[in-house]
């Protein structure tokens, strides 16, 4: 059985890549820090660290990193499906959301993270505007909490509340 820590880490495993890996020039790479808190009837748990989200063609890779830059977990999503790698363990599912649902009991829409990091809803999925800097999409409330001097979001909050649990996620984005 997968540990609760691995489950929390896998929420962000599609965000980062190792510092020693090569990233193609035309890849879109987003880096920053994350914190996640899950509250349920069984208690509360939280995790924090760094992430790197790499998008190239039809492939998205989310790496969760240790303070020294080592990969704690990696989620890779492509047209072939989704894979979670953690140490010597590997899990597979048809989609990133299905992988999250199976490992965590809730679906973090990994396919929407890039849009959310830009402070915009995913154009392919219905959403409801809440304010100039907030919207609701896929049962998540997303808000831009802080912007860089150039106007790009650098602190994003995401909240998913259900009767049995709530998930609070914060993502900072490093300047590109």
Write a concise keyword list for the protein shown above.
outer membrane lipoprotein receptor (LolB), chain A, 3 helices, eleven-stranded antiparallel β-sheet, 176 residues, mainly beta
Q: Name the CATH class.
A: Mainly Beta
Tally of strands: 11
CATH superfamily: Lipoprotein localisation LolA/LolB/LppX
**How many domains make up the 3D coordinates?**
1
Q: Could you give a short account of the major beta sheet?
A: 11 strands, antiparallel
The stretches of 5 or more residues where confidence is low (pLDDT under 50) are 12-22
Helix content: 10-25%
Distance between the termini: 38 Å
| Helix/strand order, N-terminal first | HEEEEEEHHEEEEE
According to CATH, the fold-level topology is outer membrane lipoprotein receptor (LolB), chain A
What structural category characterises the helix and strand content?
mainly beta
Rounded to an integer, what's the Rg over CA atoms?
15 Å
Question: Describe it for me?
Answer:
By secondary structure, the protein is mainly beta. The protein has one domain (4-172): Lipoprotein localisation LolA/LolB/LppX (outer membrane lipoprotein receptor (LolB), chain A). It is 12% helix and 50% strand. The chain has helices spanning 4-11, 96-104, 113-117, and strands spanning 28-40, 43-56, 59-65, 71-78, 81-86, 89-93, 127-131, 134-137, 140-147, 153-162, 165-172. An eleven-stranded antiparallel beta sheet has the order 6-5-4-3-2-1-11-10-9-8-7.
């Amino acid at each position: 059985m997968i540990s609760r820590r691995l489950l929390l880490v896998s929420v962000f495993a599609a965000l980062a890549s190792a510092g020693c890996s090569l990233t193609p020039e035309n890849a879109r790479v987003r880096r920053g820090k994350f914190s996640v808190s899950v509250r349920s009837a069984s208690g509360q748990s939280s995790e924090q660290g760094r992430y790197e989200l790499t998008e190239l063609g039809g492939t998205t890779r989310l790496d969760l990193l240790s303070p020294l830059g080592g990969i704690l977990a990696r989620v890779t999503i492509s047209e072939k499906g989704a894979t979670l790698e953690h140490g010597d363990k590997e899990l597979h599912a048809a989609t990133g959301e299905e992988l999250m649902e199976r490992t965590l009991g809730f679906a973090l829409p990994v396919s929407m993270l890039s849009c959310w990091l830009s402070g915009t809803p995913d154009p392919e999925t219905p959403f409801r505007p809440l304010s100039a800097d907030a919207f609701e999409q896929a049962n998540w409330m997303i808000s831009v909490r802080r912007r860089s001097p150039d106007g790009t979001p650098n602190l994003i909050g995401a909240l998913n509340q259900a009767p049995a649990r709530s998930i609070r996620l914060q993502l900072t984005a490093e300047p590109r």
